[in-house]
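Exercise 7. Given the encoded structure of a 115-residue chain, write a plausible sequence.
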């Protein structure tokens, strides 16, 4: 059974940090591109960051470059998103996505940036 379980969301103040983690199981993790997406109320889901399966090459949305870092651990089947210097516009539900011979999504974790 495929599972993507996100954790680490919550409330942060502007300028603060949060670290999201996605634990994967049920598929061959190291051949999948792993990504984080987010969806704010009333907006479409958007790509935040991704990391390629073999090269580990990373890609970021312009809005998070220099503030967020995606990393994967193929031994532990996890992908993390370190979020620094958070802004209110980062408020959204964050989803973990695995893309390869199939596409899988996690259930999402809420991130709220507010005073």
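Solution.
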């Amino acid at each position: 059974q495929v599972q993507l379980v996100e954790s680490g969301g919550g409330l942060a103040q502007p300028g603060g940090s949060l670290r999201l983690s996605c634990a994967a199981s049920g598929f061959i993790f190291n051949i999948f591109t792993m990504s984080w997406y987010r969806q704010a109320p009333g907006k479409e889901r958007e790509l935040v960051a991704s990391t390629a399966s073999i090269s580990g090459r990373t890609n970021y949305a312009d809005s998070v470059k220099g503030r967020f870092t995606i990393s994967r651990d193929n031994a532990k089947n996890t992908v993390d998103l370190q979020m620094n210097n958070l802004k209110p516009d980062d408020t959204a539900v964050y989803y973990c996505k695995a893309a390869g011979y199939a596409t899988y999504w996690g259930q999402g974790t809420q991130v709220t940036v507010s005073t």
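Remark. DSSP finds no helices and eleven strands in the chain. Students should compare their own answers with the one above.
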